[in-house]
Structures are given as structure tokens and as C-alpha cells.
Amino acid sequence: MASSKQMLTSALHSMEHTQGVHVKIADLGLGDGGHTFSTADTVVEVLGRKLAATKGGTAFLVFFSDLRLSDEFITRFRQFENRVTDSGKEYYVAGTSRSGIYWPLFPKGELDVVVTTNALQWLSHVPRKVMEKGTMTWNKGRVWIEGAEKEVVEAYAEQADNDLVTFLKYRKEDMVVGGMLFMLMPGRPSGLENQVTDDSPFKLIFTTLMDQAWQDLVDEGSVKEDIRDAFNIPLYLRNTDEVAAAIESCGGFKIEKMETINIADPMNARQQEFMRDPDSYGRAMANLVQSGQIKPMLEAYLDPDLTSKLFKQYAIRAANNKEFLTKNSFYHMIAVSAIRV
Ligand SMILES: C[S@@+](CC[C@H](N)C(=O)[O-])C[C@H]1O[C@@H](n2cnc3c(N)ncnc32)[C@H](O)[C@@H]1O
């Protein structure tokens, strides 16, 4: 994440001014807080230094928002509150849950900086078309879109475009003119029709292992095929053209910089260890997929026993899949900074 931090820092330097007495910052889709607090620290430190020269004594207010606040987040948030107070900084924090990023979140013109990292790949919902049995857009036999029919992928692309434009439309309202929006999201290289390259961990995580684990449950009769077919992961990896088109179509933002960044999968460093102990690799992969959106989605869809059975199968399938341990994999990310104009 060092390169995205660098880009965030330089985008903050390029902001011309902040209008209010206080600087208001929002981090949308914050997850368990692992990255979020360091992002907030970066914004406050950079703007703090920058504004000290002109305004002095500027207070910062940081809003953290997500669909749900996890226990890990709340624990980290408490430590963070203490750290904030201890450091004697003029740094105030607030956290809200059940706030979707595809909705209005703040009064008009409230925010100076909006940051969202690793959240916009999650769509507001699965496009209904892909669940219409027997149609060209029906995503039969798989739970994600890598390798799916063109019509299925197009239905996701359309939803992804609507969602990004909606997100931008509301942030345009939330933000002051001159404010800065920073978005970091997993994406795909321009010109690639597939969602992922062969060296992307997403291929294994959301396609190979997911499809195998579901198929195991179908084969052993625990889950009916129809139930599997009706479950879809609302994840779409955009390319830079799609991101630029959504920004253009919404209006109100000028792209300051857009970059693609390849981030090495942290699992690469553990390949030797995992080769020696494939079961621990299986568990690590099952934990990884459960740490994100998928677990609550599955829990809302299947009963708890079936959900844990699915993740158990997922771990077994991962332990038996050593292909990914023989090569390094990379997350392809898109980082954009845009000024509200
Ligand atoms: C992978 S985590 C990213 C966390 C953190 N920002 C980071 O970079 O590590 C994605 C987060 O986005 C949140 N999210 C996904 N869809 C959302 C939505 N529609 N509204 C609000 N948050 C959402 C999820 O709840 C999850 O906490």
C-alpha cells in the first residue's frame, strides 16, 4: 500500500484550500480498521502540516462509515480514540454503521476529503438479470462471473457503472468545491475481457475454490443445484476506462491522477511454509475469504451449518490446490484522486 499512500499524500498536497474552520474527512467502507486508521493518520498529518502554515490550530473531524462495524473495528476504534486524545492532536472521530456508500451520507457540502479503499468493487446488489432462470444472462453453475457468458459479465458491468455513478453523485453532494476524493479499488488491466489475469489471487479465491466447494456440497446432496445457481457474488473489477467514464458521466469531479498499481499477494512470502503444511494453507485461504463480505452474505443465504460446511470444503480444496504456491500472484489495483469542481 506504500504506493497508494504516496499518491494520497501528493493528492492532498494538490488540494488548493479547505473552506471550513474544521477539516472534515470521511473514510467510507472501512472494514476491520486495519488500514483505515493509518489512512486517517496520513490525511490528518499531511493536511495538518500543510494548513499549519496558513491557518494554524485547524481541528480535524474524521467520520468512519461502513455497512457494519465489526468487533475488530470497535476494538481498534477504542485504541484509536485513546491514541488520538493522548497525542493531544485536534483530531476528533466518529463511527457510523449501516451506512451504505451508494446513499447520501452527509449534509450538502460537508466534507473536505473522502477516502474509500477496497470497497467500490462490491456492488450494491447482484444484478437481477443474472438470476433469471433460462435467460441469456442467467449465471448458471457458477457463483462469480470469471469465465461466465458475455451477457452475464455485461449485466455486472452495467450494474458496476450504475453503482459508481451513484456513489460519485452522492459524494459530489457531500463534498465542498475544492475537496478531494481518493478511491482505491481492485480492478483489472485495460483491454482484458476476463475479470482477472492468471496471476490474480481473485481467480482462485472467488472462482476456482468457491465453485469447487459449492459443487462438493451439491454432489454430496447437502445443497440443491438451484440454491447454488441462485447465489452470486456481487463483485466487479473495473478497468481504468470504466472508472474514467463514470467520473465523466457524473460530472463535478476533475481527475487529478489515475494510476494502476500491482500489489504482491502477502501469501507469496509464505509459499515455502504452505508447501510444507498444505492444511495450514487451506485454513489461511478459508480465513481470507471469510474475512470479507462473503461470510455475512452466505450466512444470510444458507443456514449456519451449511455455511461452515462450505468453508470447510473450501479449506480442503485449497489445501489440495498447490498451483498457486508455485507462482507469485498480484492484486491489480486502480487508484484515483479527483478534485471536486
Ligand atoms: C475489503 S474491506 C476494505 C476495508 C478497508 N477500507 C481497507 O482498505 O482495508 C471492504 C469494506 O467495504 C464495505 N462495504 C462493501 N459494500 C459497502 C457498501 N455498499 N456500503 C458501505 N460499505 C460497504 C464492507 O463492509 C467492508 O468492510
Give structural notes:
The protein has 341 residues and is an alpha/beta fold. It has one domain (2-340): Rossmann fold. Helices cover 44% and strands 18% of the residues. It is built from eleven helices and seven strands. The chain has helices at 2-14, 36-54, 71-86, 150-174, 201-219, 225-229, 240-250, 271-276, 278-290, 294-301, 304-319, and strands spanning 22-28, 59-65, 91-96, 111-117, 175-186, 253-264, 330-340. The chain has a seven-stranded mixed beta sheet, sandwiched between helices. Helix 1 (2-14) packs parallel to helix 2 (36-54), helix 5 packs across helix 11 and helix 9 crosses helix 11. The longest helix has 25 residues, at 150-174. It is globular. The two termini are 28 Å apart. The site of S-adenosylmethionine has 19 residues, from loops.
Low-confidence stretches: none
How would a textbook summarize the main sheet?
Answer: 7 strands, mixed
Domain module tally: 1
Shape: globular
CATH superfamily: Vaccinia Virus protein VP39
Which structural category fits the helices and strands? alpha/beta
Question: What's the CATH class, please?
Answer: Alpha Beta
Please state how the strands of the largest beta sheet are arranged side by side: 3-2-1-4-5-7-6
Report mean pLDDT, rounded to a whole number.
Answer: 91
The CATH topology is what? Rossmann fold
Bound molecules: S-adenosylmethionine
Number of strands: 7
